Amino acid sequence: MMVSTSSSCCRESSKCPSIALMFQVGDNATYYNMGGCKDLRGSCTSKSCRGHEVDIMHFEIGNAIPGRLYGGNHIDNAAGNGGDRFGHLVDVYAWNPHCRYLDGVGPKENNSNAQNDWHGAWWHSSLTVHSGFVDDDNPYGKQDEKGTYYFEFSRPLRTMDRFQQDAQFTIGQPSNMAVAFWYPTDGKEWGDSEHYSASCNWLILDIQPSLEAAYYHPAPNRSWDAATAFALLLSVVAICLSIFVGYRVSKNRSTTQFTPLEQIQFAEERH
After folding, report:
1. Strand partners for 154
2. I need a labelling partner for 225 at 20 to 30 A (CA). Which of 129, 166, 244, 266 fits?
3. Which interval of the chain is the signal sequence (predicted)?
4. pTM more than 0.85
């Protein structure tokens, strides 16, 4: 994902660029009002706002080193929520703008199995140090340098969510999403509603299978065919051998002389 603008070097999150992705979860969730549940602040519940859930990934780059990966980590995931104490790339769900919570946190419930399933990083085209940065290098570039922001995000198609807090993706099945970008103007802090939107309604995210998968046709298992043919050959030989042995036994049965056991014992007593 690329956003063309000037670089903004800062440590305060609200004075730094920020980006968010929103995905429809509930069938009744709307693009407007972040899900569209009509409950007021403090009155939203999973029952009263059922069907209005949206899944949100929000990345504020103020404390994030460019080129480093942020998001889900063992410490915050062990706490059972979608937070990120290192770079503020958080996993959030919402019913409307006033009812937003980290995954695993809510007005009346806390799902200890929740976690941050997102990972992401950022970069700016004006940054030329490709050997990497550390926190002490901040600010990482010149203020208001023209260029393009680059954002990379990843997440599994499916998650362990049990409370309609994560969107579940399927290859070949479209999903509704939205993109928002916050950028400080004249060094002033931005507010929650002061963002640019990529569209005025849902965008369609369509995850297609790779070309390799679409045209992949597994070769016939020649080793399995050879093994099957060899086993069949052995079976035929065994059957033929059994028939031959049975035939020889039955043919020689009339000429075979058997001595009764009583005669053998009588002969031994005479001697």
Report:
1. 119
2. 244
3. none
4. no
